[in-house]
Each structure stands twice: as C-alpha cells, then as structure tokens.
Amino acid sequence: MGGRSKRYLLIIAASGTVLLVVLAAFAAFGCNGEPAQEDQVSQVAEAATAFLNACGDLQAEEVRSFFSQDYLQDNQVPDPLTQDDLTAALGYLNSYRLLPDQDITVEGDRAVVSVTIETSGKGEMEETMVFVQEDGLWKVESFTAMDWSTLTTSSDGEQKEVEQALNEFLIACIDSDTSYIFENLSEDYKEKHRLEKPWTAAEYSGIFGTARSFDFDPNDIEVENSGAEVDVTIEFGTRGNLESETSRVHLVKEGNEWLVDSFPFFIY
Question: pTM to 2 decimals?
Fold first, then answer.
C-alpha cells in the first residue's frame, strides 16, 4: 500500500510572533546575571516552535534531539527514530497554535507550555509540554500528545501492518480522499457494491457524511490467516452537534497489502 502524502500547516497564531521570538533572544539579563523572565519565555517559545515544526515536517531524528535524557529513557524512544515511529506516537501533525505571552509559564529551570494542536483523524486538542534545562538547552520532558506505548503494544508483524493500513484509510475517510479510499478497498468489496471508480464529492457526502475524528485500540486488532478485524469509533457532525458510532471493521490481505473488506460506516 502506498503511503499517504504528509500534509501540514504550521500556525503561530499571533502576527509577528516569530519576529518577537527572534528579537527577544537579545533581551537584557536580570540584575543577578540570570536571563530575564521575558528572555526565558522567548527561549522556551523558540524551542517549542522548533520542536513542533520538526514534528510537522516528520523530521524524526530532529524531534528526538529535543527530548531530555530522562524522557528518552522513561519512554524507551527508539534510536534511531523513524518517521513511522513518530507518526505512531503522535500521528500526522497538521497545525498548532501557541501564544507565548499567554501559553508559557517559566519557573526556574522548568517551563510549562500549553498548545492547541490538530492531527489528522483526531481533530483539535489542547495539549501540554513540559521543558527542562539540560546542558543549557530547553529540552522536552513531557508531551501529552505523544504515546510511545503503541510502539511496543502493536509492533508484532502483521498486527502493525493492519494498524498502519487502517489508520491511513481512516485518515483518507476524514479527508474525503475518495481516490485513496477506492484504491484501498478489497476487490470483493468493490464487486459487492458495484464500485468501478472513486465516488464524487457529492456521492461520498451522501454515504459517509461529515466525520471529525476516529479512534481504535491497536491492542484489540485480531489477525487470523489473511483477515483482520477491530472495533472503530468515528465521531460525526459539527461542533455542538456530535455523535459517535462504533462498528466492526474487517480487512483482508491481498498480495502484500491490507485492504478494507467491510466498513459499516458507509451507508448505501
């Protein structure tokens, strides 16, 4: 199965924030020789935006370089870190919103950063990063958006392949990428539903509607012979009017690819 193209849009919400961060690096030091509070905030902001940019660009080794030694050890972050490892832990980062003056709190050699991020298939989420100083640099000590346990709980062979195939299929569903969806439906599914080409935008809206996010537990994926299945939950609707539906999704292996063979969310 061909990989999905990685799309991202990095947003620093306040106009001129980047310039502010760069100029603030030259701020005066405090009277005791320590960096002034404003300077510390700007340094943390620089580290946070560089880290999030690297996440959005899927620069896996660059992302790894931002982690503290304690973080690397506690979370058993792979070395080297690959793009697949990064997306398994975080997903595909589309955008983030960070206002340094409001979202960063520095206390000594520790800083807490509140950030709003949007990842494909999961929508917009409020997350928290904790930075600590290590060898004179601000390093990531904690990031609530990342879950490294997925690398160990779903890393066994075909289960991992199914997880990746389903994740990318669901992202395509959220993004209304009907060409990708068509290419990754099984031949039996296409024959059963008489699909000869991708749906148009209007057709797709009629059978799937508007979805905002999805969720499934990789640990619950059941693989047997050339088939796999797992419960998937999709959130439909718009803000203030959301409904969640859960159904069993089936995949089959055709050649070297896992294709969706049953997807009850498509209503004909």
Answer: 0.52
